[in-house]
Amino acid sequence: MALKRLEKIQEIVERVLKCKANPPEEKDYLALWEDKVPVEIRRHTRIRVCQDEIIAYVDNPTTKHLLFLQKEQIIKEFQQSKFPIKGIAVRNQKSGKYVSGYARCAGNPIQKG
Q1: Which of 56, 43, 41 is nearest to 87 (CA)?
Q2: pTM above the 0.85 mark?
Q3: Tens digits of per-residue pLDDT, 71-88?
Q4: CA–CA separation, 12 vs 86, rounded Å?
Q5: Which fold has domain 24-92?
Q6: Which residues contact 83 (CB under 8 A, 6 or more apart)?
Q7: For every residue of the chain, which 3-state class applies, written as one string?
Q8: How far is CA 34 from CA 10, 39, 45, in A?
Q9: Backbone angles phi, psi at 104, to 5 degrees
Q10: Domain boundaries, the chain
């Protein structure tokens, strides 16, 4: 009985150490972002992870406001999923290109040249 219990404790310790040794990569953050963030925000947002902070580049003010309103909930979701995140910085897309590939008016695709 004690031997079986010791084996289970060893499995738990190995799993915890394995998680600590392999911190999440940016692709893991991106996958969780796709899972937890509403499509209305994802469509107009491009993100990257830098020093436990998500930097979100948005292509319009409406998306920026929506992301600002849901920022705390998104951070909470990431922390509950064991992803170390301190915050979300929301920035405007500076290149003049839309993240989504569409102009602000419906059905008006941007021509890529």
Answers
A1: 56
A2: no
A3: 999 999 988 888 888 999
A4: 27
A5: GMP Synthetase; Chain A, domain 3 (3.30.300)
A6: 24, 28, 29, 32
A7: CHHHHHHHHHHHHHHHHHHHHCCCCHHHHHHHHHHHCCHHHHCCEEEEEECCEEEEEECCHHHHHHHHHHHHHHHHHHHHCCCCCCEEEEEECCCCCCCCCECCCCCCECCCC
A8: 34, 8, 11
A9: -65, -30
A10: 24-92
